[in-house]
Design a protein that fits this description.
The chain is of the alpha/beta class. It has 15 helices and 14 strands. Strand 1, helix 1 and strand 2 form a beta-alpha-beta unit. The model has no long low-confidence stretch (mean pLDDT 97). Bound molecules: uridine-5'-diphosphate-xylopyranose. The site of uridine-5'-diphosphate-xylopyranose has 20 residues, from helix 8.
């Protein structure tokens, strides 16, 4: 099938490469010329383990290319909308890229005589496809949905670091359709991939994405809250998590207590759902608490340090880890970066090291932090060490000998660590 993908960001590019490697002919449309050139050279503009090779293979075999020209949509049978849906300052969803791309796709549909299917893969608040995207497509194409063109929703559930794996081995495939034929086109894209397929109407599919991310966020804040109580009791939340995990209704995933969740999806989607619900006249008590508990973990980490060191002014604090999780260079909404910022505000002298995320961290905190070239340099001559991302190289015990250590990600075994350093865990 001829496929065009709007948006060459994380979701768009990984989806495009996955479909291209399944034998489809894919064009990525992106307004950023630098990104387009980079993709066409086979150089991945995103960091994702192993993805560079997949992308360069697709480019070499001519099954994927990028352009900034929307006219190229005309050559495709399908357009996947993969543009970003960031947060506005009040937490609501910013739909400007969605609206712009719907107008541009609409203009192209107006020029096309063959049938076309638009598939919304971006995360959009329930109701957006019907109330925003379809009207814009109809207005700018002067065509009628379900008659002249079709539309479906196919939310992505790709975790950074294992995005291709998530695409080819999904837990489920969600297809939102208001017309059966539109959903059939999505199902065809996944031919050969074995996973339960759930077909719903469009708005339900949009909600499934938010409910999934909100539930994952809830699991993390739940275990962090239990962890905060465990710490007061002098017990280990990781033993408690193990104990509850054998109940198949609970399971063992997403129960790692620590300094909280970050990244480009969980915090943003949670806030957007809270905001959208409020607009509907419903107060999401639970979800607001999930968000509050998460923000509190960052404060807790810093309070732990203050309790031991007193006023942080001029204290030399080492931060290990800045990415929102290991194996990524992404610092968006990273708890680690929030902690580092708070330490700086409190007058601490912060030295930091992260194997991949320092270039991105420097864009947020440049002069305020001294960035070190390795973990050994970062931990030398400091009053305490905070571990904020669980990179495997931070498991090296020798980094911590004789030091005061605050572990926000359970990189060390507390029982062992107490023998060689002054160790405290955030929830254990
Ligand atoms: C997430 C969703 O998992 C994915 O399905 C969705 O489509 C995009 O958002 P991602 O942002 O890559 O993926 O991160 P994820 O692996 O889910 O982790 C999110 C955050 O939660 C990280 O900061 C991580 O450190 C934290 N986390 C995760 C915990 O604190 N404890 C856990 O047990 C699990």
């Amino acid at each position: 099938m001829g496929i065009s993908v709007i948006g060459g960001g994380y979701v768009g590019l990984v989806t495009a490469a996955a479909l291209a490697s399944k034998g489809h002919s894919v064009i990525v449309v992106d307004t950023d010329e630098g990104r387009v050139n980079s993709i066409n050279r086979g150089k991945s503009p995103i960091f994702e383990e192993g993805f560079g090779d997949v992308l360069s293979d697709c480019i070499r075999h001519n099954c994927l290319r990028a352009t900034n020209n929307y006219h190229e949509i005309l050559t495709a049978d399908i357009t996947l909308v993969c543009v970003g849906t960031p947060s506005n300052s009040d937490g609501s969803i910013d739909l400007s890229s969605i609206t712009e791309s719907a107008k541009d796709i609409g203009k192209m549909l107006g020029k096309k005589s063959e049938h076309h299917t638009v598939i919304v893969r971006s995360t959009v608040i329930p109701g957006t496809t019907r109330e925003v995207i379809i009207p814009a497509l109809e207005e700018y194409s002067r065509k009628k949905v379900h008659v002249d063109f079709d539309i479906a929703v196919n939310p992505e559930f790709m975790q950074e670091g294992k995005a291709l794996q998530c695409f080819f081995n999904p837990d489920r495939i969600i297809i939102g359709e208001d017309k059966r034929a539109a959903g059939d086109v999505v199902e065809e894209l996944y031919e050969g991939i074995s996973a339960p397929i759930v077909r719903t109407d469009i708005t339900t599919a949009e909600m499934i994405k938010y409910a999934s991310n909100a539930f994952l966020a809830t699991k993390i804040s739940f275990i962090n809250e239990i962890g905060n109580v465990c710490r007061k009791l002098g017990i280990d939340v990781y033993d408690v998590a193990k104990g509850i995990s054998f109940d198949y209704r609970i399971g063992d995933r997403f129960l790692n207590a620590g300094v909280g969740f970050g990244g480009s999806c969980l915090p943003k989607d949670l806030r957007a759902l809270i905001h959208a619900s409020r607009k509907l006249g419903y107060h999401t008590h639970l979800l607001e608490s999930v968000s509050d508990v998460n923000e509190n973990q960052v404060l807790k980490m810093v309070q732990m340090v203050e309790q031991k060191l007193g006023n942080l002014r001029s204290k030399k604090v080492c931060v290990l880890g800045l990415a929102f999780k290991p194996n990524t260079d992404d610092v968006r909404n990273a708890s680690a970066l929030k902690v580092a910022k708070l330490l700086v505000e409190k007058g601490a002298v912060v030295r930091a090291y992260d194997p991949l995320a320092m270039p991105n961290a420097k864009r947020v905190l440049s002069r305020e932090i001294k960035y070190c070239s390795n973990a050994e340099e970062a931990v030398s001559d400091c009053d305490c060490i905070l571990v904020l991302t669980e990179w495997s190289e931070f498991k090296d015990e020798s980094l911590y000998y004789g030091k005061m250590v605050f572990d926000g990600r359970r990189v060390l075994d507390p029982g062992k660590a107490r023998a060689f350093c002054d160790y405290q865990g955030i929830c254990w």
